[in-house]
Task: structure prediction
Amino acid sequence: MRTILHFNSMFKFLLILLVFCTQGIFAQSTTEVTGRITTPDGEPIPFVNVVVKGTNQGTSADIDGNFSIAVKSTDTLVFSYIGYATTEIIVGDKPVVNVQLKEDIATLDEIVVVGYGTQQKKDLTSAIAIVNSDQIQKRQTTTVAESLQGLASGVTVRGGGQPGQEARIEIRGLKNLQNANPLYVIDGLVTTANRDFNPNDIESIQILKDAAAAAIYGSRAANGVVIITTKKGKNGPLKINISSKISFTDVPRYDLAGQEEFVRLNNMAYDNAGIARQDLDLSVNTDWQKEVFRTGLIQDQNVSFSGGGENSSYFMSGNYFGNKGTVISTDFDRISFRVNSSGKKGVFSIGENLAFSNSKTNQIGAPEDLRGNPFIDVVRLLPTIPVYDDANPGGYGYGKSGVANTFAANPVAIANLINQNVENFRIRGNVWAEIDPFPFLKYRINFGYESSFDSYNYLRKEGSWTLNQPFEPSFTNQNKAQSQTQLLENTLTFNKDLGKHSLTVLVGTTYQKDSYEQINGTKRNLLINPNTGDYFDVLDLGNQAQVGGFRNEATLLSYLGRLEYNFDDRYLLNAVVRRDGSSRFSDANKWSSFPSVSVGWRLSNESFFNVEQISDLKLRVSYGELGSGNIGNYEYQGFINTFGAIVLGDGQTVYPSATQVRLANSELRWETLKQTNFGVDLAMFNNKLQFTADYFVARTEDVLFGFPILLSTGNDGGNPIANAATVENRGFEFNLAYNQSINKDFSFNASVNFTSLDNELVSLGNGLNESIQGNTITRAGGPVGMWYVLQTDGLFQNQTEIDSYTNSTGEVIMPGAVPGDIRFKDINDDGQITNEDKEVVGSPWPDFEMGLNLGFQYKDFDFSMNWIGSFGATVYNGFRSIVDRFDDDSNYRAGIQPWTPENPNTDFPRVVKGTTLNSRADSDRWLEDGSFAKLKYIGIGYNIPAATLEKVGFTKARISLSAQNIITITDYQGLDPEFSNNNIFQRGVDLGSFPNVQTYSLGVEFGF
Amino acid sequence: MKKIVFITTVLCSLYMLVSCQEDELDLTNPNALTTDQFWATPNDAELGVNSIYAMFYKDGLWARWMNFRLDLTSDEGFSQSPWVELADWTRFNYINYNFWEGNAVTWRDTYKSIFRANQVLANVPNIEFTDQTRKKQIIAEAKFLRAFNYYYAALLWEDIPLVLEPSKPDDLPQQVSEEEVLAQAEADLNDAFADLPLAWDATQTGRPTKGAAKAMLAKIYMQQHKWDQAKTALDFLVIGEGATYSLVANFKDNFTDLNENNSESVFEIQFGDQRRGGTDEGADASVSSTRAQFFAPRGIGWSDGQARFWLVDAFKQEKTVDGNLDPRLEHTLFYPGLFEDFGDKTYGRDWEWGADEAWFRKGARDYYRDNEDYYSQVNYRLIRYADILLRYAEVLNELGMTTQAYQYVDMVRARSNMAPLAQTHPEIGNNPDLFLNRLKIERVLELAGENVRWADLKRWGDLDSQAAVDEIAERDPDFKNFKVGKNQRLPIPQVEVENNPNLSQHAEY
Result:
């Protein structure tokens, strides 16, 4: 294997040399050309980029639109500036070239970053979405992913309102089962755009959606790629931009029963069960939501400095982001700095992007699955439980046997008894250098480095938060960790126009090393400072020490090549091959190659094509294969677990033990995504109307996933990863945008995007036919995670109905039922209700999702809004499965009307304590239509007129008012139908998900 | 031309750089030994066999849920847990067969133990030892523990897959009948008996002895009514070479951490509180029992399991020779009259629970603290000599040697100051049925709350007829849910059945 590789590299190397040798070296005299760039109305346009076509030689115009550049008479000058149509002019013999640029509301000539290079939007042959950074920066979000919501077709985002919570993002569906997150590339550094990244620094975002587009990134790109380019300085004097945004946030609240209603229903449930009522403390009336939720506050302060000369540029920014959460004891703080700069001398240029950030998250501790999640605790706690109770250890109120039968945890107690903080200090940056020895050749070396120093502190004070809690001494658990990514990339780009042929060839290598190291320690029985009453939370104090630490490393080495060919702007070809080697696979399976090819046909440039309204029409087809190795670092090997110990001997001494606990598959190989994409790009009416549509089939084979294996293997510690399944996603998506300037004062834009996706698990590996997880089933031939539950069929109204509810052989199906109980369907007709009666009854996958963006500008005012919608998903309402169950005490939904002999006209079964008959978690009683439309953003801005500003020396001043998540149209009865569940198989389960917060923001922005 | 030279140099060095990096793809895990690096030295064998014992500390087995499967499912205990599904699994309301805490985790942990034993049995024979005796002992320990786990698995689920080789991820083991499972356990125990010592030195107590192997064999034979073989096995402990056991004077010494591994202990699970991790496989994995935390009364522990009140009455049927209450009552149960009868409180509290409620006391740490936690260090006397004596009496009775059986019952009774059985119950005489009926009560009085009752009921056939079950249901209404022919064993976790073509669910489920 290794020899072949060497041969491959050698071959590439020779090829490159050959290219050199066949090229001559030309020399020609140059002259100085000057000119002025204006709008058709004669207004100067400052800072326009002026480039000699086919070279890197270029300059920018000054503030009055004047430029000067040394050129040859045969050169073509390319003038480009955001918001204007790019214009090309052949220099000829003229010493002065004055240019008028037309405003281009939607530019087809936009430069698109495609990975290791750029392309013009019109030349794209694969599915790439471009997101306007203005749209992103308008919103008040913590992470980039959240702000992408609804702005691009094929991109599904689910946010969450917890401070510092990272949104879930999926590009074109669930293509593997390990990790659906796309790859982020920030200024060429492969990384994650997590909460440590300041979204204010974004200049542009491109989303590579199909395999052909993402192929250049090879492995890790199977979930799509989000390419982020941060802001750069522009030619001109120092520009300062200051913005400040302040937002108030609120969580939606449950509509819960008040004390009186609770008491009535609770007594009814006990009476119906024939159990003595509990001795509820009627003197207490606690509104737990009031105790736990609060109005949050977000502030986002940003300042940036930028500028540059002809051969250099710089950009610096600083940001403070603070989020006081809507739940007590939660907040998030981030300070970040960025410096981007570049310089150039002759054929040599160099640059760097560097960002530092320090973020701190204070979380409410969640000691157990269902305890410590405030969105569950506030409904499980009874209104008759006091917040504080001196009789309990620690002094907080919670359930009490016979008085308040609940095991809910008191979130106020948890907030005070547990301190949990995470702090990350992150450095992220890259240094690059380029040499352009010839106009057609560019060599680039890029070294990227990212490191995060993570610190985790957990302090458990003595005290209880729930009934019957075992005594636990105070303790602190702390860990310090460092993660590092090193990236080294070498690329060589050859670019030549030969008549109607235009050819770009890119070859390169990349090397990436990731490592993570952690040390941790725990001490118990901490000392208390008698003066302050606080615990000493350092590891020096306390006893029963416990220490640990581990280290993980992974490397990835790749060879890549890309060919872009354009004939006469009519026929476009793009081919990529990438060969990846990963340390995560065994020697035999480390290397694999992934090819892709895409072609485009610009129909509108054909001579026979003559439709005046159509300014551009392009058909695209692509096919690509991508490898993915998104698994743990050493999954293909079995290991010995040495954590165990046993006690032996009369002295009860501890002896060590060791054994294999987790099984492993030694034959793991690359997961492969094969994606075919058909697309059309259409622009009409002078580019006012733009339409892009894509149909794709993405098939992932050898999906790496740890499906449950037989329990009788005795495996523990996680299911062994296997090349387990084949998943297929077929989807259709389109984006339609319309922009128009009615007159000088008024312009508007509207766009709609649409995504529809069918997910299918083609086969499960390991000889399995289906995988049941919770209330879902994943079967070969069906989508992942379908609802698999018992079906309810109304209520029994009387004994006759119970007695006559029989199967085909006359057996009474539910003889134990009582009038008012739920009737379940006996699907298999065996005369009883068992697991065998479960059927697939719905899908957690939406039929389609949409985004709608509207905006207009009138004089100095602008307005925009953004809606998102998701339709057709069936979701599990975890909230209702708690409050409507009655077998276990909790607070209840306000206004429910349970069945009673006096009130038989209801769909709510009789309430009865202690039996799960009516409250089975595995029934369709808790499934609801999760369709919704949500006003994600609405905002209005006012730009103070330039005339006024000039007097004070400002170039820009803007005030904006906006709101997020304030309208949700839905039938869903939980808090927020837009929730996120990270369990891939239970994505439709909303059990205590943190809802999106309603945000009201005021922002000001100055530039001078 | 200079440029070309320059570029060539750059490219060549670049090429070199990349070639070097290819080696960097060979990374080894810095955190753990791989499986093929292990099983090389005698020390590896020691660590490996120890890991089977470590399974005692897991949730699915003796640290927690096994107590629910045995004590609470039997008519001695029940659950009023507000976690209804948890309680349902102690009263034959099996709805979701995959319920982790009630079923699947015990199944999984059983096979985890077996996997560990199989690793030892497959690998240790290939390890070179200088001490051949120790090598044989290690293999014998693994066989004992494999048999031990198969015995309890057969008791709970009856027909189950028999796994005798180290597991692979795609294994689909074949289900065999309960008889075949037990036959394998018998074979393993007989092998183990040959190589286990009569006693371990003081640093190693807790490993099985020859006596423990014979005791396990006796349990297995008795469940199958193989009385002759059972007698032979028990002979070894009572009158044979292994008759080194004696009852401790103080009954309570069997249930605290104060006199562990005493003369009465035949096989004892060694619990400790030295490690404060979880019950999973993480760092500092605990070595403790959580039974007391789960069975402690409301307001003290989770109170998920408690004793049926008929036990209190059973103790009060007969007084000691001094006319006092049976002293075993005090150490077996917390009950409303505890203070009145013995001047003893419940975790230092006055009785604050129902007038007809009782809680299990064996293993509770109220003798030195007023609460519980997940780290009880009190050893669990899984087989103690009193149980052996009563079993010996039962076997003799079954073999028509009722007269000889009396003395062994009387030995147990005498420790608690109870008069000889023939004296207090002359009506029994030599009637083996009456003797067995009395023995059933004697076993309750001595062994209630020690996880033996479920196997006893099965062995006595008390779960095989509706009439017998109805009688039990009078003591424990949970048995109203019991379906004869079905509920004497648990359903197999449904995921296992669905994913293993070689395994079928019991027809009644």
User: Anything to note?
Assistant: Residues 1-28 of chain A have pLDDT under 50 and may be disordered. The longest strand of chain A covers residues 543-567. The first helix of chain A runs from residue 2 to 22. The two ends of chain A are 60 Å apart (CA to CA).
